Structure formats: C-alpha cells, structure tokens
Amino acid sequence: MGDGDYTRLRVCLEWSIDWSSALVCLSAKPPTCVHVREAATCSRYSLRTLSLLPAYFLGPESPLARRVGGFETRPEQLRMAEAVEANLANKGRLMVEAGTGVGKSFAYLVPAIRRILERRERVVVCTHTIALQEQIFEKDVPLLKAVIPDEFTTVLCKGRGNYMSLRRLRIASEKKSRICHNEEEQHSLDLVEDWAYNTDDGSLATLPQLPRRSVWEHVESDAGNCMGRRCPTYDKCFYQSARRRMENADLLICNHALFFSDLALRAKGAAFLPAYDHVIFDEAHHLESVASGHFGIRVSESRAKHVLRALYSSATGKGSLAGIEGAGLPADEVDGAIHAVLDAQSACESFFDGVWRVSSIASASISSSGRVSVPDAFVNELSPKLGDLATRLKLLRERAVEESLQFELASAAQRVTDLAAELDLFIGQGVEGCVYWVERNKPAYGSNRPSLTLSCATVDVGPVLRDRLFSMPISITMTSATLATAGNDFSHAVGRLGCDGTTTLALGSPFDYASQMRVMVDRSMPSPEDPSSLRELVPRILAHIDETGGGAFVLFTSFRALREVAERCAPILRAAGHPVFIHGEDGERSQLLRQFRESERSVLFGTSSFWEGVDVRGRALRNVIITKLPFDVPDHPLIQARHERIEALGGNAFRDDQLPRAVLRFKQGIGRLIRSTEDSGRIVVLDPRLITKSYGKKFLAALPSGVVPELV
C-alpha cells in the first residue's frame, strides 16, 4: 500500500476521527491486513467505512467510546464482532454463545452496518422478545447512528394485523350498532376512533388499553380484506406505508415469530419481508420452539367460537351479517347465511364437547396427556357446517354491489374456510412429521369444562430448517448467552436446528464471577422424587431469604410446586416485612418486575418465564434460589414424541435431549443474578442431584469460570 493510498484513506476518515486514531485499524502489520491489501482497489466509500472495523470502532479511541460515558473495551465483544464480520463476508453460518455483559447487540450491529454501507446489502436482526427488539430499535441503533455520519435506514417490522385499516375503521364506525355486541365493545370502538385521529403510525402498540380488545379485528389490516390501490384510503394506509418503509430499509428488526411466519409464506411462494442478504438471530436458544410451532397447526375453541360470533350472535342479534340485506342483498340469502352461522355454532359446541369427552379418558388413541396418536379420533361434524357457511358467504359476496362489502364477505369466507381446513388437517393428521395433542386451558366464562386447543407441532424441526432456512444463499448468525452445554459443546443446538457445519464460538463474560457470585448447594435436601421434598423446601427458602434480607428470586419448574410452597412461605415473609410477589397470582411479568425493583426486601416466586430474559440490576436482586434442576416435563406430547424419535434413531433421549436442555435452562437461571460489574450475590440450589447424580457434573461444568460451589 503506497503513500497515495494512505493519503486517500486519511481523507476518507477525517469526518470524525483523527488520523492517529484511525491507524488503530491498520496498526499491527498493514501488509497482512486484508482491508489494507484491498485498499488500493477499494472505492472511496469502502475506505471510509474502515472506521467501522471492530478493532477500531469498539476500541477506546472511537467516536462511540467518546460518546458513551464509562465505555470499556471488551475483548469478548471484539472477538464476536470480528467473527460476525467474517460470517457476513463469507455468507456463512455462525453460532456464538456470548456471556452476560459482552455487549452482543453492538457486536453484531457494527459489522452489519458496515456491510450495509459498503455493499448496500439488507440485514435482518431477529429477536425473540419484544423488549430486546425495542431496545435495539429505540436505544442501540440510534446511538450508533449518532456516531456514524453515513445514512442507513432502519425499520421495526410488525405483522400486518398490527396496523389499522382506515377504510375498515370507517365501515366499523358506520355499523357500530350492528357489529358491537355490548356497550363495552361500543366504548372500545369509540376509543379506537379517538386514537385514530392522533396516531402517527396506526400501530397496535400505541393503542391505549381497551375494555374489549376483540374490536380490533373489525379495524385491523387484513390481506383478505384489502382493496389494494382501489382502496379510497390507499395513500394514507398505515400498513402500505410500513411496507414501503420496509422495502426501502437497510436494516430490518423483527421478532422470531414474524420471521418464521414469513419463512412459512415463502414455502407457498409468497412473502411478507422484503428480500434480504443476511439474518442475525439474537436469543437464538428459542429458535427450535418458535419454528416448531410455526410449521404446525393450532386451532383453539375460543378462536372458532369468536369467528362465528363475529358473523352473528343469536343472543344479541348483532354481527357483521346483521342488517346487510339493507345493502341490496336478497333477504332470504342473508337469512340462509345467518342460519348457517347458527348451525355452525351448534356444531362447534357439540364438536368440542365431544373432544373433551374423548380426550379426558385415556385410551389407545388418546393418552392421559392429551396426545392423539391416530387419525380420526374425533367425529368431525363441524367442518361440513363451516364449508356450507363459507359457500353461502361466497354467494353473498357475488350478490353484493358495494365493493367494500364484497371484500368483507370474501375475507369472512376465507377465515371460515381456513378454520375448516385446519380442523381437517388436525383430525386427519395430514401434516407429516408432527405430533398432535389436545391442550386444556382455563374454562371460558360460564363453562363447566376446560376450553380446548387442538395443537400440532413439528417433532424434529431440523430437517425443515435445513431445507427452508439454511439452504438459502444468505449469511446466518445465531447468538445467545445459552447455546452450549458443558465444555462449550454446541452439538445439541446445532443438531436440533439442522445446521451441521456451522462455525461455533464460545465467549465468556467480562464479569468476575469468582468474586461476584457464590453458588451454594444444599446437600441435605431430599431428592425431588421424595414426597417430603416440597415440605422441606419451605424452611430452607425462608432461611436463605433471611440471610440476604430479601432481594430474592425463588425459581420453580412447575406452577403446582410454586403454589404449594408460596402458600406456606408468603404469610411468614410478609409478616417479616418482605413484599412478596407470586407469578400467576399477582399480575403480569412486567408488573411483577416493576414492583419487585421498588424494594430491596422483595421476594418473587416465579416459574419458566423468570428463568430467562429478566434483567434486575443492583441490590434489588442478590439471591436466586433454584428449587429444582429444570428438566422438561416428560409427559408433554411434543417432548414424548421428540424422545421417541431420538430413541428410534438409536440415540438416548436423556443424554441427547433432556440433559442438554436442562443444563441450558440451568445456565439461564444462574444468569439472572449478575447483570453488571457492580452486582453480587448468591445462587442457592435446593436439589441434591447436582452432587449425588453422575449427570450433576454436567450442570457443575456449566457454572461460570472460577466459581466453586459450596456444600451447605
């Protein structure tokens, strides 16, 4: 590289960096640096983006470091960023486990933005939780934009149903007295109308809380009810505006659910997201479960009844079919459609009553867990009624003169048709490689039995992802704090996702766990199989909470155990001045966390959702009590089927699946405690199997480096 090249490089970097700092990018041995070797043939723009090389941009002299108070260079973050950058360049497959505090989002955003600016390639960043999605969009990306003068556009992607249709809102307002079944629904629609005058993006996220959220379906943007360019509100359409922003964006941020919905659409020749060159999955330990559900079926009793009630309710005389004969439709055909709705409602009630009777008694075809092992286990009198209703709705659609009404009727017919098709697929077990089961939920108001959901999920999602995702000519990066089991072994995650040949990288945390964290194992506890184990948990939990003065999470693997133990502990703790919060009883997770943070003496009893994705820093959380090693419930139909498949292929279900999953979950639970360099506290494990069983070594090996468990 000659003097002229260095001069060009200096000119290109002067926008925010002094030349001596820029040399950090080139310091070691310029002749061996690929970026410098290529500089002579690079465009001016490529030279300018050398300032985004991870070694410089994430270093101590960068604009980012100058802008962020207390910025610290983290070797783990730099290694991850360099690995991501190489993966983007090679259109490869990369899986990175990065411990808490590494700064994963910057480690993949910086190379992603550099790729965007140099190559104008589109990158999708995909998270599991809304919280992380919003953090990236509202905090991380704006911070990076503030120190990167070159323009790139970012869009937060949401599903179509998250946007209001102005045309449908107008129609709903005109028909309010006919489609709203009660005063609460009318009031909710009034609130939507008021909000519509002030909203900038028409997004559900900005809509105030409604007494009846169900009214949203009358105004949401719906593919089957979209008039496209013929719509009188097309130019003002919130969804079309969002689509245009997506099409023009460089960086797309979405959640796993939306991504896999799009992937399923692509298998049918359609798509929601625009074409992209790279996808980065954060919180990647959720990929298997999300993908499995999206390639399956889910038909809830409540959804079926709601679809029909929206058309007509005999109790209220309301619904979208009520009074439409006034729109020029033959009254006898409207009456015929309404009677078809009533017939379908009767068949729906009868069908789900029958499913309950059959599934509540274990038999050769249906297990006690609700697993349905043979096709046609239920008599399906509902699908024919739905088919008749769909036919009548289509006939009305043909008779309708008003174009908006045509679209409304066509959309309703499609919803009914889809419902019938999904029922037929479930009952006939028409989706290969899936397991089928009946879920029992809380009873609906006035019902004396559980509300039911017919579920079907892919048993082994690896081959599906291998075919639909990992075969795409794009780069794929997967990262999480928990992907590898003991000894930095990624084989379980790689195998389950079907991404053989993926490059893996395990990075520790910058935290000093050896001095910040104690791990205490109670060797005197009875094994969880012992009938006395739940009773014995109570005095130990109380003692450990007393030692730290509260500030405790008590983590369980089941609601049954949580309720039994919390019922005994809560009165004692409250009498001692501890605010107590019980998952499932005292509010939503976000509300519980907000209240928990308000006092250093708080105690929270939680199950699965509190094992991960919870960030409580400082003195508020200094004690995490794990009541039981987090093995999956073995009788869940999906887990049963997964284990059967592993055994059929010559594997060992416990070794190959149950144990790795439990170790990863254990790591997630431990990860709740130390969230910053200032945090400290204890992990208490009240399951003696950690030291009495041979597999306990796998859990111990998953503890942070330098942490030695204490036996108490």
Descriptive notes:
- There is one protein chain.
- With 712 residues, the chain is α/β, with parallel strands linked by helices.
- The chain has four domains: 53-153 and 249-291 and 453-510, P-loop containing nucleotide triphosphate hydrolases (Rossmann fold); 159-235, no CATH class; 297-430, no CATH class; 513-711, Rossmann fold.
- A seven-stranded parallel sheet has the order 3-4-2-5-10-1-11, with helices on both faces.
- Helix 25 links the parallel strand 14 and strand 15.
- Helix 14 packs across helix 15.
- The protein is globular.
- The model is unreliable at 1-45 (pLDDT under 50).
Provide a brief overview of the structure:
Helices cover about 45% and strands about 10% of the residues.
The biggest beta sheet reads: 7 strands, parallel
Mean pLDDT: 88
- Unreliable stretches (pLDDT < 50, length at least 5) are 1-45
What's the name of the CATH homologous superfamily of the largest domain?
A: P-loop containing nucleotide triphosphate hydrolases
The span between the termini is 64 Å
Give the tally of β-strands. 18
Q: Which structural class do you get from the secondary structure elements?
A: alpha/beta
* Rg, alpha carbons: 28 Å
Could you say which overall geometry the principal axes of the C-alpha atoms support? globular
Reported by name, the CATH topology of the largest domain is: Rossmann fold
**Total tally of structural domains:** 4
Going across the biggest sheet, name each strand in turn: 3-4-2-5-10-1-11
CATH class of the largest domain, named: Alpha Beta
Number of helices: 29
In terms of DSSP E residues, the strand content is 5-15%
Helical content, roughly? 40-55%
CATH architecture of the largest domain: 3-Layer(aba) Sandwich
